[in-house]
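User: quick one, fold this
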Amino acid sequence: MTTLYAAWAISAGVLLLLAIAFGVGVRASSVGILIDQRGRYSLTQLQIVLWTIVVISLISGVFWARLFDDATTALDVSIPGELLGVLGISVGSTVAAMVVKAEEGRVPPGLGSCQ
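Assistant:
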């Protein structure tokens, strides 16, 4: 069991370092991992990044722990439906928030000027 925890911690650390490096790499532009099109930090993007790091690091940790213990079962990983449901909710809320932000400043035709 300690192999699993160690593999997960290493996987999470590597993915977190990659996310930080990617965020710093795109810092020159106004859009990044956590920064939306308006140049502000986005809670929805933080949510999707954190869920992605947690889930991928857990799958990677289980893979590496099984590879070190018994290489024949390394690829016998199943993802529970509940986890996929939570990821779907997270992705759906991210997409919905991006649509709302994109439509926020637009004025419907005919309502732009009051005469």
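User: anything notable?
Assistant: The longest helix spans residues 43-69.
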